[in-house]
Amino acid sequence: LVKAVILVGGPEKGTRFRPLSLDTPKPLFPVGGVPMIQHHIEACCKIPELKEILLVGYFQPNEHWAQFVTTQAKLNNVVIRYLQEFAALGTAGCIYHFRDQILNGSPESIVLMNGDVCADFQLDAMLAFHRQQDRPVLTLMGTEAVHSQSVHFGCIVENKLTHQVKHYVEKPESYVSSLINCGVYILSPEIFNIIATTIKAKTMDDLSEDFSTLSNSSSRRVSRQRSLSGASVSETLSLENDLITRLAVTGGAYVYYTQGWWSQIKTAGAAIYANRHCLKLYHNAHPSWLAQSEKGKAGPQIIGDVFIHESAKIHPSAVIGPNVSILSHVEIGAGTRIRDSIILNDVVIDENCCILNSILGWGSRIGSWSRIEGTPNDPNPDKAFAKLEHMPLFSDSGFLNPSVTILGAKVNVPSELMVLNSIVLPNKDLSHSYKNQIIL
Ligand code: GTP
Predict the structure, then answer these.
(1) Atom 26 of ligand 1 has which residue's CA nearest to it?
(2) Is 114 in the pocket of ligand 1 (CB under 6 A)?
(3) Is the pLDDT of residue 158 over 50?
(4) Closest residue (by CA) to atom 15 of ligand 1?
(5) How far is CA 14 from the centre of its chain?
């Protein structure tokens, strides 16, 4: 029996995803036309021995969330439950907190996935690899990155013969290895004993430090014991910093190397990049989800990979694609051109608009002859293994870095305006054109 746990975080996660995460929890943001974590669920459901999927997070579930969980459970004929932490317990602390529920039914292996990664998850092959190893506690999915970018990720040094992790550093200050952690793991139940020992060791460390500082300041002790989130320091535990580093010393951690596509989704720009790759994966996984220009039938011209929700109404003279997702109840007028963009539910775009490298938020309205355009920050195509850079919003000189254009929910752009490389917060009524600005 196999179980899966997907880490979905909470309200203070996904800040780099604003303003889009203001209106929906980031794990439900659509990539390839469906919520980000639906791809995780589908990948887990391909494991024949899978019995249950647990979504672990610390945000208050709303109606949208509850409906997503119910629909996915029905669609995939699997038990899916949301387990809510009282506070952010860290990537290992949260699974330890729910250990009884995870271990209920005695799973032989547990698939653990970060909710904010997107990939061609080959979980079956990874599980087979895990089972072949000598007393494995944890197998992590690894991929190659270019040297300069590797320091932004968890870096793995492996024994090339045994694939054992020899050394692991999360976001090192200088180069360690170009093999990086993808945030997808297979765990053996033994991991919970190791987490328990680590928590004990951490508590002892905390106590001894507290005794030594007690004479100096008792208030420091209190602030050490309670993290900002409200969980005690010894309850919060990071899989990457506290567990994998330890397993690298004691043994039991292995790396499964993937050559498949993989990316994190930390920013809206990353969602456009991931959208393009998800659509590409549909050629094998869901060919029927890709829109086609129908020969002999009046309909919009479709170029390359495009997802169009069945309820969307698109004028036959519009030209859509490549790399576009159009969600439910969107209306697109005559002569409009859209590429490399995500158009969220209920958006209305009038005639002859041009939408490039942009995300248009729920219920936004674009008047005729308007142009909404962003600048992609795709990985360097000339560098093998280059990953998407999660660029900071502002450059060192204080200017907004050119990036994809994002309109928050219910933004109104009147006719004949241009919005270039800008971020517009929800419910704004624009009165003129904007370039390289954040419109608050
Ligand atoms: P940064 O986002 O750059 O800090 O680094 P990272 O990629 O290492 O991400 P992080 O470890 O913060 O999160 C990885 C995944 O775990 C994301 O999907 C988060 O939403 C989720 N996550 C992180 N911390 C927690 C936690 O305390 N509880 C739960 N349930 N999920 C978490």
Answers:
(1) 90
(2) yes
(3) yes
(4) 114
(5) 9
